[in-house]
Amino acid sequence: MTPKEALEISRKVAENVEQKIKDVVGRSDAGIIVGIGKDGTPTKKIDKLAEDAAIEILKEEDVVIVSEEAGVIGEGDVFVALDPIDGTFNATAGVPIYSISLCFSNSQNLGGTFFGYVRNLATGDEYYANSNSYKNGKKIRVSDVDRLEDCNVVFYYPIKMYPFKRLRIFGSASLEICMIADGSFDCFIDIRKKDGKGYLRVYDVAASLFIAKKAGAVITDLDGNLDDKKISIDERFRLIVSNEKIHEKIKSIL
């Protein structure tokens, strides 16, 4: 599979998901729990609709799909980390910050990633990366801020004061990391732990991390080498994503 083919597949998947969820976005019944996903977390109605729509397209390809609700599906040489909706709360509340995320890798390790795709399902804004990173077809690059006092940071959740200019949380890690890639924000931080592991899962962040990397971001996972991370429902992440100028400064104060 080529990056061009992965882009075509991703767009088909995103369009099918948009079509299938459009009538429930912002409705109270979108958040009804309809089951428990393979990752052990509750599955909401809109999650199920989105995942079914995504898998409907992806199952036509020779790929192994790793997804939050369905777990591992399919066979092939290409692994796809799929998050049909990242920002479920936002989607159920009608807040226009929720995305679909697909990461394509030639191996079960993130080091094999050759294409990443994230689309804001509410606005249609599209991010993707092959050898470069793009937003809506235009090349993007991380910011060049070099002073912490000038930094606009997405941070889950600070427990002390930091010398940043602004702190924000939007509720969709894939889109937030893409905002680092396009320079809208300067750093993404999520170093939380639960039961000894990070909160973020591979389908939450794999695609956007590739997009950020190809846009010039420096990425640290506090629990190990990013390339060695598995496309698996058991994998977890604790991340710092920023431009090169501020990365070590941020690590030093956390």
TrEMBL record:
The keyword Magnesium applies. One of its GO terms (biological process) is phosphatidylinositol phosphate biosynthetic process. GO terms for molecular function: fructose 1,6-bisphosphate 1-phosphatase activity; inositol monophosphate 1-phosphatase activity; metal ion binding. Keywords: Carbohydrate metabolism, Hydrolase, Magnesium, Metal-binding. Its cofactor is Mg(2+). The keyword Metal-binding applies. SUPFAM superfamilies: Carbohydrate phosphatase. Mg(2+) binds at E68, D83, I85, D86, D204. Its EC number is 3.1.3.11. This is fructose-bisphosphatase.
